[in-house]
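Fold this complex.
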Amino acid sequence: MSKALLQIENLCKNYGEKTVVSEVSFHVKDGDILGFIGPNGAGKSTTINIISTIEQPDHGRILFQGKDVKMQEKHFKKSLGIVPQDLALYEDLNAYDNVHFFCSLYNLRGEELSGSVKEALEFVGLWDRRKDYPSKFSGGMKRRLNIACAIAHHPKMLIMDEPTVGIDPQSRNNILDTIKILNKRGTTVIYTSHYMEEVEALCNRIVLLDKGIVIEDLEKDEYKNKYQALGYETLEDMFLYLTGTDLRDMEE
Amino acid sequence: MEHLGTLFQLALKRRSKDFFVLFYNMIFPIIVIVLLGYLTSKSYSKDFTSYHYYTVVMIPFCSLMGVTTVSYAAQEEKTFKTVYRYMAAPISKGELVVAKFLSCVIVFALCSIVTLGISKLLFNMEFNGRFLWIVLLLICESAAVTGIGLFLGLACKSLDTLRNFLNLPIVIFGFLGGVFFPVNFFQPVLSGMIKLSPLTWVNRGIVSCLFDNNVHILWIVSAVFLLTGCIAAGLTVKFFKKEVLIS
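Structure:
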């Protein structure tokens, strides 16, 4: 059994009087593709922001390779790749320059840098379009460029926040294949999405968050044994069973 | 500071292509100098024309108006949604602020210097060999403007409200500093108010330098501007709020 690469312990976050994340604990093993799911307003984005060191928790800690992230923030950040839900690209830089700039923030220089940029663009199938600007790209190509910017520095762990929103099935398929290949190459992935069939097909572990609390944390096999026996055939069935069918029209 | 070069290069590239910076620091002042200079041309002498007067007062004024532009530039990662990458990358707040600070100072100062050069050519303005002193003052003013703009953009959470009112005190400073027309009050309170405007001292400094061969005021004003810029940049690093960019 592989070791925990990331250990989340009792994370809490309040915004004023409102508790957004409450005693959230789970772990991510080396080599996992962890599906981090939950309805709108469940606290996923806040948890992801805390893991990414973008926000500070009010309480709790994060261990990376067994050590507190606060003690090794620079090393942790270098080991982390982020694919934000919004396209985080400069429209006035071409595809190559976008990847080159963001990759250079991770201390890569010279040939190592240019080699990594080329590798990332080839990996997402955009090397031939490297001189084009994002404004000329389709939604799917922009999403792939968004991924290239996050993987060029070869992160040990990749956080992907709904990377397939608003794109056609072909691009989505391509992105899911990309994630599988990355994972086979040794990248651990935390994957959030509202597309349950994607999570089901891609992830080997699932953490379900609702109202700031982890309400389920299990291996894919465990979920099949536990919930399919109860008649909840798909992950979406389980999701609706555990979180209810009430609309969540709240702000994230 | 290992990423400073990378961040600075991109920031400089972006600032030098920033339409608002180029327009409001080069084209706009020239238009206003020509317009106001023409309208008041009969009120000035042949040696020191209305065009010369408005060159002296308008370039520092437009530079000061740049506080608003810098505050927007400070938050450009928010606009492009790239802020998550910056926040997650192993770069420090200091590197980010210093890169923005240096790039803005360079581009703002260059814009002011080019405008000054254009005015010299267009209006035959004589600097009596003291052009570089004026350049020094404009560089230092750019530092102050950038420092304050960055502080407002990165350390103040309620900037959106503040920004709407930001131009008001600058325009008042401009009025008191004689940007629109020369002002002089004999009443002590009003006379004291004139002294509160930084543009009063900038204009006095330039006039003393050019016509009285005295750089004392200009030197002090430059030092105060530079100090203000550095302190404001330092405070920006100290009070930098991530939530300003990610909210």
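Chain A has a mean pLDDT of 90.
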